[in-house]
Every structure is written in C-alpha cells, then in structure tokens.
Amino acid sequence: MKFSSEPLGLSDNTFVILRDLIHERTGLFYSSSKQTMLADKLSIRVRERGLDSFLDYYYLLKYDQSAREEWQEVINALTVQETYFWREYDQIRVLVEVLLPKYLERFYNLDYPCQPLRIWSAACSTGEEPLSIAIALNEAGWFERIPIEIWASDASSRAIHKAVSGVYREYSFRGFPQSLKAKYFSAHKEGWEISPLIHNRVHWSVNNLLVESDIQYLAQAHFVFCRNVFIYFSEAAILKTVNFFYQRMFNPSYLFLSASESLIKLKTNFDLEEIDGAFIYMKHESKPKKI
Q1: Tell me, what's the pLDDT at 115?
Q2: Of 23, 110, 153, 279, which residue has the fewest beta carbons closer than 10 angstroms?
Q3: 270 neighbors 283 (Cβ within 8 angstroms)
Q4: With contact defined as beta carbons under 8 Å apart, do 153 and 129 qualify?
C-alpha cells in the first residue's frame, strides 16, 4: 500500500506533548522552530500505522500495547545517520599513541591477569567510528599486546543493521587514507566490505542512552566515545546521560565528545583536558563528587 508523501498537519498543542514525550524517551529535543521538521519525519510512520492524526499517534506511543516496538520505529525515523571513517581522528590518534601507552605503563602487569581494556562507541550510528578505532588499534599492534574489547551501540536498529552488514558506500571514505581502504576493505556489489579481521573485533547492539538498564554494562568502560549525539539532546538529557556515564565508568577513564559539544556549562565531575592537541574529558581517581 502506498501512502501520501505529504506531511500531516501537526498542531501547536499536539506538537508540544509529542515533542516532550519523545524527549523523555529518547533525549532528542525539538524546539518550536523544528515543528515542521518533526512532522516531516514522522508523517509516513503515522500513516503506516493507519492513523489520521499526530494526536492519535501520541496516544499510541504513550498507552498502546505495541508502543515498545513503535518507539524503535520513531528512533529510526528521527536519528541522523551521518558519519564517516576517520572522523575527528585526532582523538583516536591520542587514544592509540598517548592514552593506551599510559594505561599499559600504569595498570598492566604481566605478573597477574588484567581485565580487558574496554572501549565503548556509545552512539556509533552505522559503525564507521568503532571500525576506525579498531583499524587504528590494529595498525599500532595493540591487539597483540593487551586484551581489548570494543563495544558499539546505537539507539537506531536501522543503523546497527547497516553496521552489522559491514558494507559501506564511497561517501563513508572521505578523508580516509586510500592505503588503509585497500588494506582493510574489499569490493562489494553495494560498495566496500570491511575485513572480518576488523569487523569481528566489534560487539554491536541496539541501546538507548536514556535507558539506564540498556547501558549499565556498556558504560563500565575505560574509554567512551559519545560524539555527535549530544547536539540533538537537551541540557537535561545530556546531564542525565553524562552523570550516569561517570557513575559507571572505570576509574580513571576518558570520555570523548565531538568538537561541537561541550560540558563546560553543565555541572559534572568530568575534567576537560587537552592531551596532545585533542580535548578529552577525564574521570580522575578518587575525585570527590561535586555538591
């Protein structure tokens, strides 16, 4: 069945209650200036559910027995899947060249077993970020030196489905060294397929950052990359997420945000540090909590 491509009308009152419900469940916040954008993104889904209005859709999301499954469709429709290999590579370089040697020197002792070092890409979209991390680690020989786990999650099941496929189009390689593309990717009928050697290093899952039970295990990490997602969150949602990260992350540990994101105006326990040209948030050992 074909549905009209014209967006449904979204009244001001319905926009507010729908916007607030979406914010509560996902952290994504739509200001009044983005009312039309929200209508555009969800109109097709409303019609696919056989509904005539956004108000009916609001009630479905809030009260219907099928709401849990429908929320996944909402997230798939609203999330922005824009990323590429080697994006903001300076932070990955600092991880590989500066922070991991510090970790090895301070915490890893061959006389006793050590827990695996855990890296979590917390909003990995279609997978280019965690795969970039895995490639950089492999290039530097880290997988042969210490046990490393890479976990990658996103709220969008559609994005994770693509990440699991491991196939990428040319647009994902802008800025990526051609020599590494030739080394780690092979031609595929739909683009370029990542080497199983790298792809199998990453554990993929669908997880919502606003659901603590979803991420409580993943957040127990030494290094957390959560880049280019907080630009879509409200300050309240950012603060809730970051504070939960702080509670769960190992001590010490590092949080990587994008260059366009900042925690400076928010009350958190993370300290912003410049490390070899990259800005990174750090959880220090035995740091007293702010009141």
Answers
A1: 78
A2: 110
A3: yes
A4: no
163-199 pLDDT tens trace: 999 999 999 999 899 999 999 999 999 999 999 999 9
Q: Distance of CA 34 to CAs 37, 39, 79, 91, 176, Å?
A: 5, 9, 14, 32, 33
Residue type, 270: F
Per the CB < 8 A criterion, the answer to whether 55 and 14 are in contact is yes
Taking only the tens place, the pLDDT of each residue in 97-106 is 999 998 888 7
CA gap 291, 92 in Å, rounded: 33
For the chain, the three-class secondary structure string (H helix, E strand, C coil) is: CCCCCCCCCCCHHHHHHHHHHHHHHHCECCCHHHHHHHHHHHHHHHHHCCCCCHHHHHHHHHHCCCHHHHHHHHHHHHCCCCCCCCCCHHHHHHHHHHHHHHHHHHHCCCCCCCCCEEEEECCCCCCHHHHHHHHHHHHCCHHHCCCEEEEEEECCHHHHHHHHHCEECHHHHCCCCHHHHHHHEEEECCEEEECHHHHCCEEEEECCCCCHHHHCCCCCCCEEECCCCHHHECHHHHHHHHHHHHHHCCCCEEEECCCCCCCCCCCCCCEEEEECCEEEEEECCCCCCCC
Check whether 124 has a pLDDT greater than 70. yes
Q: Model's pTM, two decimal places?
A: 0.91
